[in-house]
Amino acid sequence: MASLLDPSARGRVILVGAGPGDPGLLTVRAVEALREADVLVHDGLVDSRVLDLAPQAHRISVAKQRARHTLSQDAINALIIAHVKTGAIVVRLKGGDPFIFGRGGEEVEAVRAAGLPVEVIPGVSAALGAAAEAMLPLTHRDWSSAVSFVAGQCKGLSDQDWSGLAGKGRTLVIYMGVANCPAIADKLMADGVAPDMPVAVLERATLEGHRAIRTLLADLGDLVEREKVKSPAIIVVGEVVRLSDAEDKLIQWARMAEAAQ
Fold it and tell me: Which parts of the sequence belong to the Tetrapyrrole methylase domain (predicted)?
């Protein structure tokens, strides 16, 4: 744990990883922090069952969605700091792990710059939770000795160099990529990944309505459209996908292959 603070201290921040959704995947320390909180500043994707573990806390939602944020990151930082300065214990509750595409590093920087104490409690990342539920090993001695995590909604996707991140012996995990699936598939194939590389889409992992489906890379964009996949979802590219319990959705790919012959 990064920086365990005096449990009797007032006026402090605790960044807590809420995991992928199921409250059973919270760490013991995360539950303790929720019970200590005076103010709970939480993401929109945090499950209500997790929020209910802090009934005494004043809740503030800072939900973010694609192209629409309740508050800017600077405003969130200022909000946290303002409450801490009143002497409150502020729990900043973030989906997954605070330091994996959670902007936790920016919030720690802001709190430290204000001269305030901060603790970070890691959580089960969305990728790890989703992969475990789908029985999809991200590494495997026979299939993959490396795994990479990327954000699929980054600007300038065509300018990114992903050539070494997916392919034989490697697994690529893409966060926040549902809306950009066609461009992501084109990008990976342009960077040398085979069109018939297995790919899985893990939707709403550990939550009600979750599903895991798989196809081949060239079919990824069509799969997401015809299956009406919605965020939150993780995309996994690599041979390890073959080992998972994900449901095969290869019909469209088979038709494409037949048409090309």
Answer: 12-220
**Residue 173 structural domain:** 127-260
Measure the CA dihedral 229/20/2/148, to 10°.
-40
Q: Write down the pLDDT at residue 104.
A: 95
The answer to whether residue 5 sits within a structural domain is no
Catalytic residue among 64, 186, 191, 222: 64
Q: What is the pLDDT of residue 71?
A: 87
Q: What is the DSSP string of 82-135?
A: HHHTTT-EEEEEESB-TTSSS-HHHHHHHHHHTT--EEEE----HHHHHHHHTT
Looking at the fold, whether 111 and 188 belong to one and the same domain comes out as no
Percentage helix, strand, coil, to 5, in the chain? 35, 25, 40
Are 81 and 183 contained in the same domain?
no
Domain boundary among 94, 124, 154: 124
Residue segments in the chain with a per-residue pLDDT below the cut of 50: 1-4, 253
User: Within this chain, do residues 162 and 50 fall inside the same structural domain, yes or no?
Assistant: no
pLDDT value, residue 3: 43
Instruction: Please answer whether residues 233 and 199 qualify as being in contact, where contact means their C-beta atoms are separated by less than 8 angstroms.
Output: no
Active-site residue 43, yes or no?
A: yes
CA angle (181 as vertex; 176, 185 as ends), nearest 5: 125
In a domain, 4, yes or no: no
Q: Do 115 and 140 fall into the same domain?
A: no
Any bridge partners for residue 3, and if so which?
A: none
Which is the catalytic residue, given 22, 38, 43, 97?
A: 43
Q: How far apart are CA 89 and CA 52, in angstroms?
A: 17
Is 1 inside any structural domain? Answer: no
Residue 2's pLDDT is 40
Beta bridge partners of 248: 214
Q: Are residues 210 and 241 in the same domain?
A: yes
Q: Model pTM?
A: 0.87
